[in-house]
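Hi R.,

Here's the chain you asked about this morning:
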Amino acid sequence: MEQAKPLPPVSGRGAPTNLRPTRTGSLAHEADGDWLDAAESIDGAPPPLRTSVTAERPKSIIARNVSPDIGFDRSINPYRGCEHGCIYCFARPTHAYHDLSPGLDFESRLFAKPDAAKLLRAELAKRNYRVAPIAIGTNTDGYQPIEREWGVTRSVIEVLAETRHPLILTTKSDRLLRDIDLLADMARDNLVGVAISVTTLDPAIARTLEPRAPHPRRRLAAIRALIDAGVPTQVNIAPIIPAITDHEIEAILAAAAEAGAIRASYILLRLPHEVAPLFRAWLDAHYPDRADKVMHMVQDIRGGRDNDPEFFTRMKGRGIWAQLIRTRVKRAAREHGLDKSFPPLRCDLFRPPERDGQMELF
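And the predicted structure, written out as tokens:
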């Protein structure tokens, strides 16, 4: 793997490097301009790194998986790349398939799928379609800042709500509250479950770890608003980073319980492919005093490697540190009443959308 090339710090961004991809691919796309970062230079300082959004035109929108350690077999990704800039994001390597860097490119050169709702409607209308919950937000966040302008995630949820199709929604943004009307409507029929990710309660850590994600307090407030609207919501501590955020486990669960969350889950830090050197560069930039300690603990959890891709252990790790974290999460969850289960989402209410302009007769 090519060594990461050091770059000057970029204000408001997560990756301290623009590591070149180790895999290549191609994509036909249509450029659609810049947004948000068109600020002029202030006091002689260079303007911030600009964000570009490209319209992607896929032929289908539902991605399938056969992973035995996750609770869904299909998902929708309204966007590629994510401006939240979380340095730990395990989706970063996917940008290499666009011949782009999993580093700064991943968080500044984004792709939107404006035809997602149209494609979803067509796929749900197929006669051989079989209903099971669709997950959104498991790869890149459907409520990253560009959703405000593009609205792709809302358009997808509108189709799911119309067809009474079950949905699993994961995000670290309170922007989903804009769609609380749809989510509350689906929740009345037990068609949706939401997970809000809270990595840290410390704004100083959050500013470098996930620089463009909403403040932790706003995510906790989103949990409260969703619960008050009748939407079943859990907190997801994702990821837990040894020697950086693991000391906050109990505090995060206590805050989530106070906000009304009904259950808790967690994922230990994962460092697949290019994420490992990017994370090492981030440690060197922000935590040089403990970089070696962090990576030693990560490798202990991952069987001596930076990453463990094996099913079942890839999320929770192995070894004494992983067991200690697992015990702490379970104990705190039980103490705060966060060890409940979501009721199974209903699949029996699904009604296919119109096919070729004709309503279903039976």
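The chain is about 30% helix and 15% strand.

Let me know if you need anything else.
M.
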